């Protein structure tokens, strides 16, 4: 079977990573790339990395044109812009993996509070399927629309869910301290990500206000069945890619580092893309891969879990293809295990 796929927002960073991965996927063919520009640039002019590998132009395509050319759409648009087009794609029989945040939060009031915008398609939120296979694999398999996780929530959720599910940590006193490379902010220029602003600098942002806070809490609540409360502090690090999240929680009983690591290891024993390691993780070890590396330490009265991912792969486009593989019944690791 060959699935014809289209990528919306194809000038961006997540789209480039998707194209790279899908070009080595035996069951997928890229048949459409979109942009709002009307001059039909060749993909090699936008992404020189794809020169000689993909002979397509980026086009300002209508929903009907996308439906003619594609079976499945990867949406790489900003939030709100994405939910403005997803309903029309689904109505035309397409499957969608949405990399934006639009379908991640199930409560529209929570979305509107944290995103400060009216949701364009609120009726789909309560039943949306969150695409984190390690926790929600069964619901992904039959879905037509996947809400692909945020990059920071992927790292924090994979770090904390196993210990919460095992009842080893308290659910209402969790700190997530994360650092991200600059590609996490996308290719669309923003003041804070200009080279002179962020090079040789290291800064916190969104303290107490970052929209990934409710996403992390929702994931942990769904995984553990307990009310969860998280303080999440993101930081921008002057590197291209990678996220390192250091998560602090209070144990519910005295535990050791060895017990915490053993619990993580047991939880992820059959997972192809989560590796529990004894040493301390580094972003470089997972760069350009769909892997998450994790470990834990118990220090005084806290459990510390440290996770690393590549924000553009396991935090975005690799996870999107992992979800695509589940939706279409391809082996889950197709095009991702390298
Ligand atoms: N970067 C990351 O690490 C991660 C990103 N995400 C999410 O994935 C999505 C894509 O991210 P990323 O690739 O980094 O973003 P980029 O900024 O790199 O690219 C987004 C593309 O969307 C198009 N676009 C921008 N604004 C609009 C609009 N209002 N309406 C329609 N199209 C628009 C632009 O293309 P053009 O101008 O050519 O039309 C742009 O190139 C976002 O929702 C992001 O939040 C999720 C996880 C991680
Ligand atoms: C470094 C940086 O700026 N990172 C982005 C997160 C990227 C992401 O996952 O965003 P979505 O939830 O919108 O998809 C941010 O903090 O806004």
Automatic annotation (TrEMBL):
Reaction catalyzed: N-acetyl-L-glutamate 5-semialdehyde + phosphate + NADP(+) = N-acetyl-L-glutamyl 5-phosphate + NADPH + H(+)
A Pfam family recorded for this sequence: Semialdhyde_dhC_1
This protein's superkingdom? Bacteria
A GO cellular component annotated for this chain's UniProt record is: cytoplasm
Q: Where in the cell is it found?
A: Cytoplasm
Q: Which family does it belong to?
A: Belongs to the NAGSA dehydrogenase family. Type 1 subfamily.
Entry function: Catalyzes the NADPH-dependent reduction of N-acetyl-5-glutamyl phosphate to yield N-acetyl-L-glutamate 5-semialdehyde.
Q: Which HAMAP family match?
A: ArgC_type1 (MF_00150)
- Protein name as catalogued: N-acetyl-gamma-glutamyl-phosphate reductase
Origin species, per record, is Blastopirellula marina
Taxonomic classification: Bacteria, Pseudomonadati, Planctomycetota, Planctomycetia, Pirellulales
Chain's gene name: argC
């Amino acid at each position: 079977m060959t699935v014809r796929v289209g990528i919306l927002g194809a000038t961006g960073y997540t789209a480039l990573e998707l194209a790279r991965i899908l070009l080595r996927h035996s069951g997928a063919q890229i048949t459409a790339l979109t942009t709002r520009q009307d001059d039909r640039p060749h993909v090699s002019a936008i992404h020189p990395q794809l020169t000689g590998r993909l002979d397509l132009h980026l086009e300002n395509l209508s929903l009907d044109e996308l439906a003619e050319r594609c079976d499945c759409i990867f949406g790489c648009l900003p939030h709100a812009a994405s939910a403005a087009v997803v309903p029309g794609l689904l109505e035309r029989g397409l499957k969608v993996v949405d990399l934006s945040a639009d379908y991640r939060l199930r409560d529209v009031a929570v979305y509107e509070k944290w995103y400060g915008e009216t949701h364009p398609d609120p009726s789909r939120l309560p039943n949306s399927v969150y695409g984190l296979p390690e926790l929600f694999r069964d619901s992904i398999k039959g879905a037509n629309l996947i809400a692909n996780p945020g990059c920071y929530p992927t790292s924090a959720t994979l770090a904390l869910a196993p210990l919460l599910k095992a009842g080893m940590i308290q659910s209402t006193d969790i700190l997530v301290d994360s650092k991200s490379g600059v590609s996490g902010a996308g290719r669309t220029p923003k003041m804070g990500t200009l080279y002179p602003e962020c090079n040789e600098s290291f800064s916190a942002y969104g303290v107490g206000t970052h929209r990934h806070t409710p996403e992390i809490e929702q994931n942990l609540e769904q995984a553990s069945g307990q009310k969860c409360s998280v303080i999440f502090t993101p930081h921008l690090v002057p590197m291209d890619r990678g996220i390192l999240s250091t998560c602090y929680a209070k144990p519910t009983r005295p535990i050791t580092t060895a017990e915490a690591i053993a619990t993580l290891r047991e939880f992820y024993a059959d997972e192809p893309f989560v590796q529990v390691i004894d040493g301390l993780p580094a972003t470089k070890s997972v760069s350009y891969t769909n892997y998450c590396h994790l470990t834990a330490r118990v220090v005084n009265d806290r459990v510390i879990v440290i996770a690393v991912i590549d924000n553009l792969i396991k935090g975005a486009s690799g996870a999107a293809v992992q979800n695509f593989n589940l939706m279409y019944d391809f082996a889950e690791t197709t095009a991702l295990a390298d």
